[in-house]
Specification:
324 residues, alpha/beta, nine-stranded mixed sheet, 11 helices, 34% helix, globular
């Protein structure tokens, strides 16, 4: 049965490699014995995983994102605790446990993604209601929809989101998958303004591009335009300036060149480019969702740096937000 499993201090300790004279984040990060303790925790940031790839498969992608969470978690827990980040700022909540679909037909995958939507959003809403900032590790970007829904319901109004992504994820609503989270969020009134930063001209169909051009709710800056510009100092601040101060941030790992994902790219932001975007965001963001990254895909490809890439973005996000 699908559900959510709280992470225990015993599990945390088992994944943390201790060394004399050093302190790791895993020795400082908090856990809970029940969700009722959430609002009493002093940690502002709440880390949780959605280890699934059914949204990717429903979008005709390659499986692998379900395995990312566990590898990222072990890497994160073994980061050094020091003056820049102690670990006490972070609460490790746990992970969703998601069973396989009832069948192998595409409609079974669509149905499973809808079930994941209904599983995810109430817990995320509870995190927002407690005044916390969720950091969500996917999983596919289909999970952007329940996160946006949760934030909108917690605030009682539609919200703003910027997605750093090669793809707009504005495909049609014939069935839920990783390519239409933002279509559904706009359709259902949870998303007010949607910004896409670093979109690739080559990998978005004409229908999606026309929607971007005609919708007053959607703003876009193409990666193809970015690479023509030598001085990019003010591009990111200028792009996100019109958006709500407490907007959500989505990062699809396929926007970073040579990071393993179902739609890996040889042309994109470097990791240091992406780190600069996160570190230079001068707004109090409501959440961070890192999706689509994989350490191993079902076709046999592997990426030994994917987990560390995600860890850098998690720690950069926390540091930047603490100083904003």
């Amino acid at each position: 049965m699908d559900g959510f499993k709280l992470f225990t201090q015993t599990q945390l300790s088992a994944l943390t490699i201790t060394r004399e004279g050093e302190v790791k984040l895993g020795q400082k990060i908090q856990t809970l014995s029940s969700l009722e303790e959430l609002s009493r925790s002093k940690a502002l940031f709440v880390l949780l995983g959605i280890p699934e790839d059914y949204g990717v498969l429903a979008n005709h992608g390659i499986a692998g994102t379900a395995n990312t969470w566990n590898v990222v978690l072990k890497s994160l827990l073994n980061v050094q605790s020091n003056m820049f980040l102690t670990g006490a700022e972070l609460l490790l909540l746990g992970q969703f446990e998601i069973s396989a679909p009832k069948g192998n037909h595409i409609t079974d995958l669509y149905q499973k993604v809808e079930e994941i939507d209904e599983l995810v959003y109430p817990l995320i809403q509870q995190i927002f209601a407690a005044g916390k900032v969720p950091i969500v590790i996917g999983g596919g970007q289909n999970n952007a929809y329940p996160i946006i829904k949760a934030l909108s319901m917690a605030r009682g109004r539609p919200i703003d989101v910027i997605n750093i992504d090669a793809h707009a994820d504005l495909r049609g609503d014939a069935g839920r998958h990783s390519g239409n989270a933002f279509s559904y969020a706009l359709r259902d009134g949870y998303l007010k303004n949607y910004g896409i930063f670093g979109l690739h001209e080559n990998y978005n169909n004409m229908s999606v591009l026309q929607q971007i051009e005609t919708s007053p709710q959607i703003s876009c800056l193409y990666f193809d335009e970015l690479i023509k510009t030598k001085d990019r100092t003010n591009i990111w601040p200028d792009f996100n300036k019109p958006f709500d101060y407490n907007m959500g941030m989505e990062i699809d790992l396929d926007a970073i060149e040579n990071v393993l994902s179902s739609a890996s790219t040889p042309s994109g932001f470097t990791l240091n480019d992406m780190r600069r975007l996160v570190l230079n965001t001068k707004k109090k963001l409501s959440y961070l969702h890192l999706s689509e990254g994989a350490v191993e895909l079902s076709d046999g490809r592997t990426d030994h740096h994917a987990a560390k890439t995600i860890v850098y973005l998690v720690t950069d996000f926390i540091k930047a937000q603490l100083n904003t």
